[in-house]
């Protein structure tokens, strides 16, 4: 006994050609419902979204027969508005950018990358951090050290050495050796060849650790005997607060 088209099971894969469908399409995007024209979804032929609705798509439908896309539905409205009217969103820029990348809508991607938010992150900050050796690895190292010291404590601290030039790195080597002899873990950032200063890098470290959900602050590391220079020139203490 065949199942009628009016009682489609949830998750059924659609293999029929979309040329036979109505020009009006109903969508379920992550639980958000949308209705639009098939031509709107296929506006940019080279995009992943257009490919979803071209030829013989491998899409699934929900219990009501709507095409299901397993992405955040909240931001799809901005994608749809762009396809309808070429209007570039001014809200939720970072999240819409992620969706534009997923759907591979190249014109929207390029226009969003020209926005101050994305331009500043991709072209300015990310390009700077790409010139700081092992930046991402050092962020993870800081977190591991802080978590290891968090047992039965409200706060834990990580000493960070930031050197912008090779000369700075040589100047602080004695202090690093001294800290190592005292069995104190130090995470060293730099040197780098870019305009941003040490304070700029410190802000980036705080920003990226906080983006991972941690509550963090930093202050100059208090000078100890054996340091040949003011410790706040290169050494900082990052404080993780756990509760």
Automatic annotation (TrEMBL):
Sequence ranges assigned to domain BTB in this UniProt record: 23-120
Annotated InterPro entries: BTB/POZ_dom (IPR000210), KCTD7/14_C (IPR057890), SKP1/BTB/POZ_sf (IPR011333), T1-type_BTB (IPR003131)
Coiled coil regions in record: none
A GO biological process held by the record: protein homooligomerization
Protein origin, superkingdom: Eukaryota
SMART domains the UniProt entry points to: BTB
CDD domains listed in its UniProt record: BTB_POZ_KCTD14
Name of the featured protein: KCD14 protein
Organism per entry: Ciccaba nigrolineata
């Amino acid at each position: 006994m065949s199942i009628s088209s009016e009682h489609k099971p949830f998750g059924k894969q659609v293999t029929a050609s979309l040329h036979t469908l109505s020009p009006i399409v109903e969508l379920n995007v992550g639980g958000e419902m949308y209705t639009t024209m098939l031509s709107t979804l296929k506006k940019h032929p080279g995009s992943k979204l257009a490919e979803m609705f071209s030829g013989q798509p491998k899409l699934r439908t929900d219990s009501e027969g709507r095409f299901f896309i397993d992405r955040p539905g909240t931001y799809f409205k901005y994608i749809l508005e762009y396809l309808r009217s070429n209007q570039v969103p001014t809200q939720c820029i970072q999240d819409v950018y992620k969706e534009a990348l997923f759907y591979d809508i190249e014109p929207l991607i390029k226009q969003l990358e020209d926005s101050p938010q994305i331009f500043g992150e991709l072209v300015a900050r990310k390009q700077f951090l790409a010139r700081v050796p092992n930046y991402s690895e050092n962020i993870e190292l800081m977190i591991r050290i802080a978590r290891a010291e968090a047992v039965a404590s409200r706060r834990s601290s990580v000493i960070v050495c930031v050197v912008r030039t090779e000369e700075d790195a040589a100047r602080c080597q004695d202090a690093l050796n001294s800290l190592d002899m005292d069995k104190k873990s130090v995470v060293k950032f730099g040197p780098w060849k870019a305009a941003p200063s040490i304070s700029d890098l410190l802000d980036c470290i705080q920003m990226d650790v906080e983006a991972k959900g941690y509550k963090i602050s930093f202050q100059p590391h208090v000078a100890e005997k054996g340091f040949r220079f003011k410790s706040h020139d290169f050494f900082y203490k990052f404080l993780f607060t756990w509760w």
